[in-house]
Every structure is written in structure tokens, then in C-alpha cells.
Amino acid sequence: MPYFSEADARSIIRETYGQVQSDGAAVAEALYAPEELARLPRGAVELALGVAHPVRHAGLKPGQVVLDLGCGGGIDTLLAAMAVGPQGKAIGLDMTPKMLERAQKHTALMGLTNVELREGMMEEIPLSDASVDVIISNGVLNLSTRKSRALAEMIRVLRPGGRVSISDLVLTETLPEPVLKSPAALAG
């Protein structure tokens, strides 16, 4: 039984992630190679909030279109943009306007012209059918209140033969009720 309505859950998540400052450098340093981090703006590194490195496992190739669900400050979007090169495109999707502003700043600092940032929900991806080659997501799917819908949307926007590289949290047992009722736990 959900303890939060879908609207309340989205509001809590949007507010929580909109207030994140910069405490993710240790996360980034644990997940990404030093040479990758050296190519990124410090702000993107400090906003790393993921749980793994989906770009490393995505098998990106030059010229591909990649969608980063829940792009946050842009660390994986930027790495994907570099991997697909100027003939490809990296699309970052996030529900949090403040995170998108930060990702835009980081994109501009790098001078990347193959990055597109969009505000939206993973359950309602604002892209055409069969429009992306690869989807990456890093610690975000667990935040969805409608995971089946989010997965259906991923399938819808993937081109035939497309791939998905998801890094996320997985539970092996039910959480205690106080945790389930906690807005802080809901937002990660």
C-alpha cells in the first residue's frame, strides 16, 4: 500500500533533488575513472548522485542517440555525449528544473553541442516512438511511482535493437513501515 500519492511523491522528490547542493564528489570518485572526471566540470562531478556507471556498460558508439533518464546535474549525459561524438546526441531528461539548469551550465562549460536537455517524467517521456538507440539511467528508476509505465515508455522510445543500461537500487526484502512512511527515504 503506497503511503504517498503519486503527486505527493513527485513533489517530495522534485523538492529534495532541487535542494541538493554539492556533496557527490566522493560518489563520483568511487564510480568513475579519474581521467573521465578530469574532462568534466567540477560542478557536474560534485552533483553525482548515482549508484554505478551506466555509460561504461551501455556500449555507446559514435553517432548514436542516447537518452539519460533522470539526468540530474548531467554527469552521465556529458559522458554519453562525449562517447557518441558530434554526430550523435545525448538527451538528458529530468523532472527537476533546478537540476536541468545545472546540467545546462555544465554542458555550456564543456562547449558540447550534441546535448539536449528536457524537463519531463520517465513515465511520460517527451520523445517520439523509436527515436533513441540507447537509454541509460543511474539510481533513478527506484524513484518512480509507476515503474511498469516507465519501463513501457523506455520500450516505446527505443529503436528496434536498442539497448538499456540501468544502474539502480534493488530491495531483497520489504522495508520497515517507518522507512516506507518517511519522505526522506522516498527521495533517496
UniProtKB/TrEMBL annotation:
The reaction(s) this protein catalyses: arsenic triglutathione + 3 [thioredoxin]-dithiol + 3 S-adenosyl-L-methionine = trimethylarsine + 3 [thioredoxin]-disulfide + 3 glutathione + 3 S-adenosyl-L-homocysteine + 3 H(+); arsenic triglutathione + [thioredoxin]-dithiol + S-adenosyl-L-methionine + 2 H2O = methylarsonous acid + [thioredoxin]-disulfide + 3 glutathione + S-adenosyl-L-homocysteine + H(+); arsenic triglutathione + 2 [thioredoxin]-dithiol + 2 S-adenosyl-L-methionine + H2O = dimethylarsinous acid + 2 [thioredoxin]-disulfide + 3 glutathione + 2 S-adenosyl-L-homocysteine + 2 H(+)
Domain of life from the UniProt record: Bacteria
GO molecular function: arsenite methyltransferase activity
This protein's record includes keyword Transferase: yes
InterPro entries noted in UniProt: Arsenite_MeTrfase-like, Methyltranfer_dom, SAM-dependent_MTases_sf
Stored CDD domains: AdoMet_MTases (cd02440)
Domain Methyltransferase, residue spans: 61-181
Annotated protein name in UniProt: Arsenite methyltransferase
